[in-house]
Amino acid sequence: MTVAEELTPAIPDESEEPIKQRKNGLYPGVSDELAENMKSGWADTELRDLDPVPQAAETAARRAALSARFPGERLVIPAGNLKTRSNDTEYAFRASVEYAWLTGNQTEDGVLVLEPRGDGHEATIYLLPRSDRENGEFWLDGQGELWVGRRHSLTEAGKLYGIPASDVRELPAKLREATGPVRVVRGYDAGIEAALTDKVTAERDEELRVFLSEARLVKDSFEIGELQKAVDSTVRGFEDVVKVLDKAEATSERYIEGTFFLRARVEGNDVGYGTIAAAGPHACTLHWVRNDGPVRSGDLLLLDAGVEMHTYYTADVTRTLPINGRFSEIQRKIYDAVYEAQEAGIAAVKPGAKYRDFHDAAQRVLAERLVEWGLVEGPVERVLELGLQRRWTLHGTGHMLGMDVHDCAAARTETYVDGVLEPGMCLTVEPGLYFQADDLTVPEEYRGIGVRIEDDILVTEDGNRNLSAALPRRSDEVEAWMAALKS
Description:
The chain is α+β, with helices and mostly antiparallel strands. It has helices at 32-37, 56-69, 97-103, 137-140, 145-148, 154-161, 171-177, 190-195, 202-214, 221-243, 245-250, 253-267, 329-347, 357-372, 380-386, 390-393, 475-486; strands spanning 74-78, 84-86, 89-90, 111-117, 120-127, 165-167, 182-184, 270-271, 276-279, 300-305, 307-308, 317-322, 426-429, 432-435, 449-452, 455-460, 463-466.
């Protein structure tokens, strides 16, 4: 990896901070002649025939709803800043969901500001402009465009996102001078928050955050299309994994993780969360993301993974697969119980149903099987009342899905967990049974087996649609699917 020198230019603009010189750089400075040479001889690269981003109409409608909710108040929604990974390298940037959902933009340091005007608001998107060629930033600064790539000009950004664009470096001073009520989405940009420190309250800012979370509970048609794309790509990623299970057996769970990651990076932006590639007893660890264990014939592989699209919408799918292509008798017994529970859960997803219904339906089936197998003393009502099944079911049966894998997390309990399902909501249904390798309360043959089946379910006007139905779920269909892929 090359290293930007970040040298102070020969003739810095006194109105700007000088470009920081990197310690231990190989060049001692920039000559006047070189500095002058680098200013000229560059073609005009302004992009003039730009169409708005595909979701521009939807983001405008979302901003209008936000404006209506907080009339007369200045609203500040930052994208966030780069975070240091180590020394002078940064983590890959991912804009705040609130900002990306309202703008379609994903640029670091961006800020959306809604200024109250009359009966509504005037939106401005504040961004870094093109790298400055007069002061040498474009080739000397570590974030200059010759180092990290071209930024859109402010004019280009305005066309793309349908929002007038201004220089974000001017925003802190404007915010410090602002009067009237202000709200900001906290936790993403310390500089913006500092500029507003005497103008905002935690309670009012939390109301803004909660509103933006609840506004995403029901997806629009654009969002549903993106979720389906993410799921379709994820299905192909699962197929990729099945085809290379022999190579994973020769290496480790990392081969599975890497195989799925390739699909995610080629067809999407990234994985939507850390891939869980849990073979054997690792399947009993709910968020096993170390993925450094062996992959053995005769064991099960629990693969929980999702492709995130370039628009940030992600899938979240789990399949538990027999590594050698065939379930053993005890594996099939446990798998079929989880499948039956998932079927009951999916059937409970429909408009007007309580959000909790699908969880309760799935948990009842699992409790019935645990009583039937003699692993817990009945009756089933007693088991459910005391939550005794949770020793082996552990987690809730699903969550909202969208731009975050656990979407809408800041929503109020009464509108989410205690709420009612509506058409356009998208959620996961993912029951599981996990028999830990050291659990002496179950027969030895159960120990070390973990099974989870997860699908992404869209609430429709008349019921639901399984977005991930292309991946087989029934045990015999899973075996046939795996055999066909390996042939």
